[in-house]
Amino acid sequence: MKPFGQRLAGALAHRGPLCVGIDPHPRLLADWGLTVDVDGLETFCELCVEAFDGVVAIVKPQVAFFEVFGSAGIAVLERTVEVLCSSGTLVLADAKRGDIGSTMDAYARTWLSSDSPLCSDAVTVSPYLGFGALAPALDLAAETRRGVFVLAATSNPEGAQVQQARVADGRSVAQVMVDEAAVRNAGADVLGSVGVVVGATLTEAPDLSALHGPILMPGVGAQGGTPDDVRRLAGDQLRAVVPNVSREVLRAGPSVSALRDAVARTVDGFAFLQA
Ligand SMILES: O=c1ccn([C@@H]2O[C@H](COP(=O)(O)O)[C@@H](O)[C@H]2O)c(=O)[nH]1
Questions:
Q1: pLDDT in tens, 209-227
Q2: Ligand 1 atom 18, closest CA
Q3: Residue of the CA atom closest to atom 11 of ligand 1
Q4: pTM value?
Q5: What does the chain look like in DSSP terms, one character per residue?
Q6: How many domains does the chain have?
């Protein structure tokens, strides 16, 4: 298996530069005419798989919306991840894990170990216990040729309190996270496997020019970010940017063809990323 960064670069080139979220909000389940329970969750995910599998570059299930249903919800997540991964559609588990090293090791094995029922192509991690605490996930991802997306500058306004604070050399904390990720990507072919998360809602992005890895940009659509914001924040890194859109696409459901049309319209709006 090729490293995640290379697989992602191939998927973006062939399927367009979009990460579509599977975010089964209770409100969306109701709008789709589904019950707000595990049965509704399962049907929602089956329709998402039918609509997105083989169509979009990468799919991002939001783990929180599965965990809320307990073990039965996790079982739906396992099945969803398994179907997508086995058909070759990349899966990014949005779990935002981050803890002390020994616990991080268990999180890493959950999301990145080939023998785990939740094994995905990549996982989101939070570096706010210190970037070094992420080492078990970064090391296991390198070993299993999977990917990690490190939260750097998140799309929520509250993030700035921590992420825009300055360290002794004057860099923002968000910039430190990008620079640490860049060290992990040094020497990678095509695109490294350590990505960062930079919100499409921000007024300014960290300097991404040395990252050599994917840049996930959530916050497009429902949170107010636009394709123009993505263009502005990406700077000269257009080919590494992966906009994430969840509710803005999912609102088109439950019709599979309407979901696919929403994906196609959204991809068209980001044509500049592939030019
Ligand atoms: O900075 C971040 C990091 C992650 N997210 C996640 O992305 C989706 C966005 O959903 P929308 O419906 O498109 O707003 C969601 O799962 C968030 O948890 C983010 O928004 N910002």
A1: 999 999 999 999 999 999 9
A2: 62
A3: 246
A4: 0.98
A5: ---HHHHHHHHHHHH-S-EEEE---HHHHHHTT--SSHHHHHHHHHHHHHHHTTTSSEEEEBTHHHHTTHHHHHHHHHHHHHHHHHHT-EEEEEEEE---HHHHHHHHHHHH-TTSTT--SEEEE--TT-GGGGHHHHHHHHHHT-EEEEEEE-SSGGGHHHHT-B-TTS-BHHHHHHHHHHHHHTT-SSS-SEEEEE-TT-SSPPP-TT--S-EEE--BSTTSB-HHHHHHHHTT-GGGEEEEESHHHHTT-S-HHHHHHHHHHHHHHTGGG--
A6: 1
CATH number at residue 32: 3.20.20.70
Residue 100 belongs to what domain range? Answer: 4-274
Q: Is the ipTM of this complex over 0.90?
A: yes
Question: Nearest residue CA, atom 16 of ligand 1?
Answer: 62
Whether residue 223 has its Cβ less than 6 Å from ligand 1: yes
Question: Which of 246, 249, 263, 266 gets mutated to test ligand 1 (max ligand atoms within 8 A of its CB)?
Answer: 246
Centre of ligand 1 from the C-alpha of residue 209, in Å: 23
Residue 275 pLDDT: 67
